[in-house]
Design a protein that fits this description.
Length: 113
C-alpha cells in the first residue's frame, strides 16, 4: 500500500456547508424581492411567474373556511367542536394526509390557529 491516497488534507472538506448556504442565500434573496420561498399553504396557492419566481394567490373558498374558524373561536371552547361544525357545514378542508379521513380534524384546526 503506497502513501499516495489522494490530495493532501488541508483541513477543509470540499462542498460541506456550501450547498445549504447557497440555497439559503437564494431563498433569502427571493423573499426580499417578495417571492415565495416555500410550499403552498391552506388558504392560498403558489403561482409561478417565471423560473424561480413564485407568488401567492388567495383561494376564496379556503379563505372562507379560515374566516369561519376564527369566527367560531370566541363561541366554542374546544377545537373538536369547531372541526365538527365545519364538517357539518361542508366547509372546504385541507387535503387529507395518508390514513386520515377527508374533512376537518382537530389537529387541522389547531394548525391554522
Amino acid at each position: 500500500m503506497s502513501g499516495d491516497a489522494g490530495p493532501p488534507d488541508d483541513g477543509r472538506r470540499v462542498g460541506v456547508g456550501e450547498g445549504p448556504a447557497r440555497s439559503r442565500d437564494a431563498a433569502l434573496q427571493r423573499a426580499r424581492h417578495g417571492f415565495v420561498t416555500g410550499a403552498s399553504r391552506f388558504g392560498d396557492h403558489n403561482v409561478r411567474i417565471t423560473a424561480g419566481q413564485v407568488t401567492r394567490e388567495i383561494d376564496p373558498q379556503e379563505a372562507a373556511s379560515i374566516r369561519r374558524i376564527f369566527g367560531m373561536c370566541p363561541d366554542s371552547k374546544e377545537i373538536t367542536h369547531i372541526s365538527q361544525a365545519l364538517n357539518a357545514q361542508g366547509a372546504t378542508a385541507p387535503r387529507a394526509q395518508q390514513r386520515w379521513p377527508n374533512g376537518w380534524v382537530p389537529s387541522s384546526v389547531h394548525a391554522l390557529l
